[in-house]
Backbone:
């Protein structure tokens, strides 16, 4: 990646987990407790992620 490219935060996954899913990590196959989740929180997170992705894709430095 060129030095001028914007930094894109990425969660690195362990190569030993690629394609295995959370069932490999926990008995329930779930990565956390979803009781505090709500449709509103999910919608907000989805919108923020979409906005962030759109901003990265629109940034001309990404395509240099």
Residues:
């Amino acid at each position: 990646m060129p030095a001028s490219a914007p930094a894109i935060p990425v969660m690195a996954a362990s190569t030993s987990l690629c394609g295995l899913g959370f069932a490999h990590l926990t008995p329930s196959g779930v990565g956390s407790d979803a009781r505090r989740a709500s449709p509103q929180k999910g919608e907000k997170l989805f919108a923020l992620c979409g906005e962030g992705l759109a901003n990265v894709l629109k940034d001309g430095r990404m395509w240099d």
About this structure: The chain has one helix and no strands. Helices lie at 39-58.
